[in-house]
Amino acid sequence: VFDSSKITVIYVLGGPGAGKGTQCAYLVEDFGFCHLSAGDLLRAEQNREGSQYGELIRTYIREGTIVPMHVTIKLLENAMTEALKEKEGKNIEGWADGKGRFLIDGFPRKMDQAIEFDRTVCLSSKVLFFSTTEEVMLGRLLERGKTSGREDDNIESIKKRFRTYENDTMPVIQYYASQDKVAQIDSTVTIEEVHNAARETVQKLFSEKQ
Ligand code: AP5
């Protein structure tokens, strides 16, 4: 579907509450990425009137488990197509090298997604891995849960999300690490410190590519 020579994809992984979304917002400002969050795309689809997947997505998210691959990949590919169409022919900062720069957050979360997306969309993706302890993530999510309105920001769902992360997503991170594609960033420290480290890392990834 996509011409891989015309896109750069960086996956953003880490546990629930590691700070993926927070840091992606900064990196978009720094580098002009198109930020696509698998979780946001799924929540939008869940709330879209008439969606055939609404109930299915709601059940998986509440249970803290991985939504079936075909749904997530379809949403992601549609969003990438839209973004590329929108930018086509425009000299937008960060896309000026003619490449669509995508920061894909919360994906791939399971080995089947990694293999399928690498096969059909982009083989050369790098991974930014935000890592911290469960204790830190739990504290952040419980705090955010007071105002987020997210159905999965409660202690029961959070514990299930941690288990899913350990069982399904850690193997994906190990898989990419074995290919030397993972840059690990300690996200235990302040938002600003994490951002500085993330910016430097992405800068390096881009200079390595040239
Ligand atoms: P998703 O929406 O991706 O949730 P998540 O991975 O659990 O991560 P969060 O969004 O909760 O946290 P985050 O790491 O982005 O942290 P944030 O920056 O918000 O996924 C939800 C569900 O959707 C999944 O469980 C699954 O069911 C489904 N899903 C998602 N992707 C899927 C896929 N690929 N396939 C199938 N199903 C999928 O920060 C958290 C809080 O901490 C914020 O309040 C923030 O202000 C604060 N904070 C951040 N950094 C710091 C810091 N350094 N110091 C202090 N506070 C901080």
UniProtKB/TrEMBL annotation:
Q: Which reaction does it catalyse?
A: UMP + ATP = UDP + ADP
Q: Which Gene3D superfamilies match?
A: P-loop containing nucleotide triphosphate hydrolases (3.40.50.300)
Q: Which GO terms describe its biological process?
A: 'de novo' pyrimidine nucleobase biosynthetic process; pyrimidine nucleotide biosynthetic process
Q: Name one Pfam family in it.
A: ADK
Q: Which CDD domains does its entry note?
A: ADK (cd01428)
Q: Which cofactor does it need?
A: Mg(2+)
**SUPFAM superfamilies, from UniProt?**
P-loop containing nucleoside triphosphate hydrolases
| Annotated positions binding a ribonucleoside 5'-phosphate | R43, T65, I66, V67, G106, F107, P108, R109, Q113, R150, R161
Which Gene Ontology molecular function entries are recorded, alphabetically?
A: ATP binding; UMP kinase activity
User: Can the keyword Zinc-finger be found in this entry's annotation?
Assistant: no
Q: Where is this region: LID?
A: 143-153
Region feature NMPbind, mapped onto this chain: 37-67
Q: Which EC numbers does the record give? A: 2.7.4.14
Binding, ATP: G17, A18, G19, K20, G21, T22, R144, V189
- What are the TM regions of this chain, as residue ranges? none
- InterPro entries associated with the record: Adenylat/UMP-CMP_kin, Adenylat_kinase_CS, P-loop_NTPase, UMP_CMP_kinase
Write out the entry's keywords from A to Z.
ATP-binding, Cytoplasm, Kinase, Nucleotide-binding, Nucleus, Pyrimidine biosynthesis, Transferase
Co-factor binding details: Binds 1 Mg(2+) ion per monomer.
Q: What is known of its domains?
A: Consists of three domains, a large central CORE domain and two small peripheral domains, NMPbind and LID, which undergo movements during catalysis. The LID domain closes over the site of phosphoryl transfer upon ATP binding. Assembling and dissambling the active center during each catalytic cycle provides an effective means to prevent ATP hydrolysis.
Give the record's subunit note. Answer: Monomer.
Q: Which PANTHER family match?
A: NUCLEOTIDE KINASE
Question: What role does this protein play?
Answer: Catalyzes the phosphorylation of pyrimidine nucleoside monophosphates at the expense of ATP. Plays an important role in de novo pyrimidine nucleotide biosynthesis. Has preference for UMP and dUMP as phosphate acceptors, but can also use CMP, dCMP and AMP.
Protein's recorded name: Uridylate kinase
